Amino acid sequence: MVRLGTMTVMKILVVDDSEHIRLRLSWQVGAIPGLEQVWVALTGIQAQKLLTRMKPALLVLEPQLSDGDPVHLIPLFKSTHADLKVAVLTDDATGHSRQRCLQAGADWFFDKSTEFTQLLDLIHQLSDASLLTQHSNATVPHGGSHE
């Protein structure tokens, strides 16, 4: 998370090769207070580069990308970014897919067609928690700092 003045900004990286999903998530998540930085990637390679550069608090990941299956990258992402949370959002919501993603280290698993709203609810909760943390911890009075 980034602290700007007295406002904490939670960063989210959305990795999905569906333009519709990327736009929908960016638009809806971007309207949530405290979530002003929503980045998008179309491929696992782009995700790796952006993850290193932007250090998001939440990664929303589609496990079926045009350049391959990024599920094997979840342990790497989490080992190099200890505070990273991973939410999988997919059309392949079979029990096998769910188990595979959670075993790889995903924190949550959502079906695109039936649980999209639950993902948005989770993001609201994470944003509220970051705002609560911001108000309970000392904040920088002006300027900015990175956590």
TrEMBL record:
Keywords: Phosphoprotein
PANTHER family, per database record: RESPONSE REGULATORY DOMAIN-CONTAINING PROTEIN, STRESS RESPONSE REGULATOR PROTEIN 1
Signal peptide span: none
SMART domains from the UniProt entry: REC
Protein name: Response regulator receiver protein
Residues in Response regulatory domain copies: 11-127
UniProt organism field: Hylemonella gracilis ATCC 19624
Biological-process GO terms, alphabetical: phosphorelay signal transduction system
Keyword check for Phosphoprotein: yes
Matches recorded under Pfam families: Response_reg
